[in-house]
Amino acid sequence: MKLYIAVGTAVLLVMAIFIIVFVAYYQQKQIRQQLILKEWQEKYRKGLLAATLQAQEHERRRIAQDLHDEIGTMLSVTKLSLNQLGRTVEHNDPGSTVLVQKTRSLLDETIANVRRISRDLVPTTLERFGLVSALEELAEKASNGEVHVELSCSDKMPTLLPQLDLTLFRIAQELINNAIKHANAENIIIDLHCQPTGILLSVIDDGRGFDLDEILKDKKRGLGLRNIESRLNVIDGHVTFDVEEGRGSRIHIQVKNLKPEVEVEVEAV
Amino acid sequence: MFLLLAIGTGLVNYFFLDKPNRWLLRMLIFSFAISLIQIHDAAYRHNNTYLYNLNSLVEMSGFAVAYWTELKSRRNRSLVLSGFVIYVLVFLYDFSWTNIAGIALGVQRIIMIMYALLYFHYILTKMQIQNLLIHSMFWVSAGAIVHAAGTLFVFLFVKVTLGDLSSNGSYYLYITIVRTFSAFFYLVLLVSFWLRRREFRVTGRLTV
């Protein structure tokens, strides 16, 4: 009987130890698999986001091209015809000349608008001359009698990857637009600096600020800011919002100047 | 001595202990009080075997409450409660003032194994613990399962093992085995109290 007790106890002990080892091993294995799965999901999500942004850029490019090549051309042809019509009307019906001139000026305005929209959709300056020039142009375009936009930049800016250039440009565009439209800012400073850790882009304004939590809660209002976060997510960048209602905002973007995993193609129009 | 060390460690790390570990510490303090009474009774040559039975009740209550607080799901809690109710019924049936209640102690071991297996199942299905090897309740369960497996047959066949004091000195052998496994379990509890401190700090660092 004592032997049976000894054997039974030994068997139970072996089983207990086996169960403990099995649980520890199996749990660790499951955790590792979960981590791998999470990594894959994250990679997939980033890929999807990159593809969406890429599709967005393609679409902008297509619309810009259509505006420039088709509507722009049609408007130019229309202007030519109107000029011819204007000459005919000048001789036969001098009373309608004013109307032709008015139509011509409206047409000129439309052609200028189409060109502007087309240029805004595709940042050609960015592709041809780089980020600094594109930001200079952006600052110049945004500045008017009421708003003053200034660019402060490092003397030596490295050549960045096209995807990085485009992301930073689009973010700056969004932030300036927000500062003018929603914060009623009068002075905006775009600060672009190269650091050992990467590139730092700051957009500082003297507007009325905003409540970040409230904006992010509202799905309709927080779209622009979420878009910024999505763009940065693809290139492993970070955004810091130093904002508060009633005072100017400071938004800092930090990105690494490394070759990212997912690249967005940038095509010339 | 190991019991005292485990209590000391528990008290030192009391701030870091979670609810289940605090209940286990309370259980150890009660066990220690019972041990002191046992020593006192033995010194005055009074019968102290009933204290083994009472200690079993204290251990089982401590375990039941600890696992009740740790295992959150309704199904697990009902299993913990059922196990405890079964044990109490067996304890009431088998309790004796003059003998070790072998069946009750045996059932206690079986239910301890059940609790440990239930906990293992819980951690394998929930998958919330990143590093199991520094998770204190895992070691508590591992210690409990080894302790219970090592002493189960000793108590189930209590008449053969601890029943007769004059049977070729086997009583001393088996009581030493029981004490060794108890010491091992207290040692594991000591380690788990320290691990809980570490776990607390790691979790704190992650959430800040």
From TrEMBL, chain A:
The chain crosses the membrane at residues 6-26. The keyword Cytoplasm does not apply. It is an enzyme of class 2 (transferase). GO terms for molecular function: ATP binding; phosphorelay sensor kinase activity; protein dimerization activity. GO terms for cellular component: membrane. The keyword Repeat does not apply. Its EC number is 2.7.13.3. It catalyses: ATP + protein L-histidine = ADP + protein N-phospho-L-histidine. Residues 62-259 form the Histidine kinase domain. Keywords: ATP-binding, Kinase, Membrane, Nucleotide-binding, Phosphoprotein, Transferase, Transmembrane, Transmembrane helix, Two-component regulatory system. It holds the Pfam family HATPase_c. PANTHER family: NITRATE/NITRITE SENSOR PROTEIN NARX-RELATED, NITRATE_NITRITE SENSOR PROTEIN NARQ. This is histidine kinase. It comes from Larkinella punicea.
UniProtKB/TrEMBL annotation, chain B:
It comes from Larkinella punicea. It comes from the Bacteria. The keyword Transmembrane applies. Keywords: Membrane, Transmembrane, Transmembrane helix. This is Uncharacterized protein. The chain crosses the membrane at residues 23-44, 79-97, 103-124, 136-159, 171-195.
